[in-house]
Write the structure tokens for this entry.
Amino acid sequence: MTTVFIISAPSGSGKSTLVARLMDMVPRLHFSVSYTTRAPRGQEKSGESYHYIGREEFEAAIARDEFLEYAEVFGNYYGTHRSELDRAREQGADLVLDIDVQGARQLRSKFPDAVSIFILAPSREILEERLRARSEDSEQVIERRLREAAKEIRNYVAYDYIVVNREVGAAADTLAAIVKAERIRRCRMEDEVRPILASFEA
Ligand code: 5GP
């Protein structure tokens, strides 16, 4: 059974770094590469961070019902293609999605067993510092991201877990612990327990 792990965070919370660490630390995880209409930033290459496509192409894929979920974020479309879940299932892996709060809401209603994790920067000041240090965005974009963050943070209650990113190593350990604990919880009646119970009944 493939478990769906949804990870959301306001931009600048350190989510991409944490998700990359998680993928290195825990085996049998498939990272869902989203489709987006936004332009690649810096070193981003198509097929790694995202698949970059045009608005028309995106809207055609919506019409063909190819997305498990999609949303408009900062004026661009972002969506999870159905094939990502198929790929995880084929590999016997769990699926990790880095998506916003709107996408998380759509996926929870489709997959009630999905596990959702919200990553938070420790304060507004630290979030602002991180957004500036990245120096990828203009002043206007930074202001907008901070305003959006303030709104997004209010959605934390809908998530199963909150991870505060004070220090990246500790936060990555917490993420890995969540994935491992959820795996143990889900397989408790299966392969491991059955033979033990059988041995007591003999
Ligand atoms: P960025 O442009 O900074 O890479 O991402 C902006 C926001 O879009 C982030 O909050 C990210 O989680 C979200 N996002 C990325 N891919 C998807 C997706 O496939 N679906 C949804 N709903 N949001 C996404």
Remarks:
- Residues 18 and 172 are 5 Å apart (CA to CA).
